[in-house]
Fold this protein.
Amino acid sequence: MAPTVCFNCKEARAVIIRPKNRHKLCRACFIQIFETEVHETIIGTKLFFRGERVAIGASGGKDSTVLAAVLKTLNERYDYGLNLCLLSIDEGIRGYRDDSLETVKRNAVQYEMPLEIVGYGELYGWTMDQVVAQVGKKGNCTYCGVFRRQALDRGAARLGIKHVVTGHNADDVAETVMMNLLRGDLPRLSRGTSIVTDSDASDIKRSKPLKYAYEKEIVLYAHHRQLDYFSTECIYSPEAFRGSARTLIKDLEKIRPSSILDIVKSGEDMAALVPVEVRGSGKSKHAGAEDESAGGCGSQNGRSSGGEMAAMEKQLTENDAAESRETEIKLPVATSKKSKPAKPAKQIKGQTMGHCERCGYISSQRICKACTLLDGLNRNRPKTAIEVGMEDEEGSSTLMRQMERAQLGAT
Ligand SMILES: Nc1ncnc2c1ncn2[C@@H]1O[C@H](COP(=O)(O)OP(=O)(O)OP(=O)(O)O)[C@@H](O)[C@H]1O
């Protein structure tokens, strides 16, 4: 059988079936198209300004590695005039983050970008290994997510940088839409769909330039550009709810590849209907610094990783077969029973953002989530560990002093 030619250039041999639309492309066209789409997102949303210093939240995983590679390419190709650097958070997970940080260190050399590493241990007095030893695996992602969001902000503040970009992709955003739809949390849904989350109370802006990029295409891009990334998944158990939303979306994607972008777009449309005071922001102003989608992780459950290239190709073939199985399901027509009057819509309270009384981090509560979690951890800390942390007479812990120092750095 003659090889299929590229849908785009009509010359080279097609080696990729685009997950987004099933176009068959050659390697060069796929790379070019992927980069152009990210460029269009950046330009269309006026994401950066010339001369801006931008920190790339770099975990060493495929998404942030691709983000760093693409931003470097686009910055040079289109002369954005950005000053890029890598910012990594060391959660203190031995056998996982220490290895992935080695990848980030190599990336820093490969992309000629400075690298800053900020650790939970130094910021909070707790590594994730210690947190898990204390609270167990269940629910540990909550600690990690809350701590990471603050750590990214504090790391950026330390560098004097006001814009952090993360590798959140279209699949991540679709999951967030789905989860918040199922929870009935419209304010969070609307904030999660926004490409930029910034706040009046914090001067660090966060954005997701890969918001419209499919996870599978990110893997293909990394593979075809032979990027150096770390593909092992976090050793601690994932958040079950996000994992279920992910499985649901992946199943939908098999039947209808555009599902991911469709969910993202539907999320954007729903967000546009949410009044500013309910959403908690104008152009996502006040977008909670504590929102779950903003700082990374989510769970790794069901996630594609670097070693899945063969499985992905197989999956794409299955997608073709799945399309022919698509059937329309008709709901029974409602009979003429008297319908109950609709309940008045629930009033959704808007969030008022302020600062945490303890650490000064942006929060809608008197004490931010991180400090609340730390309170619980410190209360139950084994005595010996407390003694290490309680050096001064007023009982002010090392942790608190570290947080105060971090806060000074953040303001
Ligand atoms: N330890 C970290 N240090 C810096 N940034 C991080 C860290 N963990 C996550 N992030 C940022 O948050 C984004 C989403 O993280 P998450 O762990 O959900 O995703 P992922 O899809 O596995 O991303 P990646 O492939 O980049 O690891 C990452 O792409 C990265 O930009």
